[in-house]
């Protein structure tokens, strides 16, 4: 069977992903850079500021906001320790109250606040999140460096979670065996797969568990 060709920075069918967070992935990052094939200049380095919405009652829907646009992905399955996520919802602020009631707050798996207005601004939405006992908005700044190893889309990155600095490393593909080979090649076998939801919750104390290192 022919494999789907992945293009870094482009959308393909849902991928499987290995990612981890910790204080130091220097050696693995150097190996990733040396093993990488050339990649487009637009992914050499990327920076972004995002808001993640964390729910105490939900670990399967990942919600982030960037440039006034909301993106929710949902966990599909885990295979050999690798996670697959699919898009669940995309929206933009100002946002209809009906979308918040019918799609957004149900994805958080929490009680739905009494929304009196028909259209909600980004600022009003964040006020709702801050007032909710089971939700928390977290500021995340990402500085990411893109690579391509064994036909998998890879990155290393420096991440600020409410100002706390972490390192992350990642390999994703539609092909599980390619990711597993990449993990072996950069010598990260046995390192815990930690997604953004889990990493942020550990940093802010919503989960009592350490990161990979």
Keywords:
two-stranded antiparallel ribbon; 5 helices; single chain; 24% helix; 8-stranded antiparallel barrel; 10 strands; 213 residues; Hypothetical Protein Pfu-838710-001; alpha+beta
Sheet with most strands? 8 strands, antiparallel, barrel
Helix-strand string: EHEEEEEHEHEEEHH
Oligomeric composition of the shown chains: single chain
CATH level-two architecture:
Beta Barrel
Low-confidence blocks of residues = none
State the CATH class. Answer: Mainly Beta
Can you list the strand order of the major beta sheet? 1-5-4-3-2-8-9-10
Q: Kindly estimate the percentage of residues that lie in beta strands according to DSSP.
A: 35-45%
What's the helical proportion of residues? 10-25%
Number of strands: 10
Structure notes:
- Strands 1-5-4-3-2-8-9-10 form an eight-stranded antiparallel barrel, surrounded by five helices. A two-stranded antiparallel sheet has the order 6-7.
- It has helices spanning 26-35, 97-108, 122-131, 176-185, 196-204, and strands at 16-22, 46-55, 61-66, 69-79, 82-92, 95-96, 119-120, 135-149, 152-161, 164-173.
- The protein contains five helices and ten strands; from the N terminus they run E-H-E-E-E-E-E-H-E-H-E-E-E-H-H.
- It has one domain (16-204): Hypothetical Protein Pfu-838710-001 (Beta Barrel), CATH 2.40.320.
- It is elongated and about 55 Å long.
